[in-house]
Amino acid sequence: MQIRPFILTSLASLGLAIGLTTGTPAQMPHDDNMTEPTGQFQRIEQPLWSKVAVTGAGLGLIGLELWWFLLSKPRSRRASATDGVQEITVTVDGGYDPSEIVVQAGQPVRLNFYRKDPSSCLEAVRFPDFRIARELPVNQTTAIEFTPTQPGRYEFTCGMNMFRGTVDVRAETGVLNGNRATQAAA
């Protein structure tokens, strides 16, 4: 995956920023006249560069999360039809690849989930609209079959609802008013 080097670089930069900000311990001014605790919080002055570093690291992480969840484009692929069944293999490794699958309505679909990631979140896949829930053993392929009858977007998720994918069901081509239309040569 191309995103892993970016994530590793971001984590290394964050570790460096945290290491630099924690290098100087915070010091509290000492007053010899104060012998009894007052129960009030005492302000601890921090250097300006540590405030800027912590704020920058926080904003960077927020930006990464926004990009990851809102702006990253899903990988889309059309299922190939063999023997009347639309079939595609979905690799489960830190998410679903492809995460968007395009199929035609009215034809059987077989999604072959091959799970590489041993994390507990990805040990199951659920298709709520089709009432399907299956366990996905590590390093094995699990076939899930269903026949979508209506066009639309149908979501599938991991067991914890963190990772998502969609099955984009499109209207069957060559169907007009319930009768098969002849394909006109262009």
Write the layout of secondary structure elements.
Elements: H1 3-21, H2 48-71, E1 76-78, E2 80-82, E3 85-92, E4 96-97, E5 100-104, E6 109-115, E7 124-127, E8 132-135, E9 141-146, E10 152-158, E11 164-170, E12 175-176, E13 179-180
Parallel strand pairs: 1-5, 3-6, 5-11
Antiparallel strand pairs: 2-3, 3-4, 6-9, 7-8, 7-10, 10-11, 12-13
Oligomer: single chain
Q: How many strands?
A: 13
Largest sheet: 6 strands, mixed
Low-pLDDT windows of residues: 175-186
Shape: elongated
Q: How large a portion of the residues is in β-strands, by DSSP E?
A: 25-35%
The number of distinct helices, counting runs of at least 4 residues, comes to: 2
Order of helices and strands: HHEEEEEEEEEEEEE
Structural class: alpha+beta
For the terminal residues, how far apart are their CA atoms? 40 Å
Please compute the radius of gyration using only Cα atoms: 27 Å
Average pLDDT taken over every residue: 81
Which percent bin holds the helix content? 10-25%
Q: How do the strands line up in the largest sheet?
A: 1-5-11-10-7-8
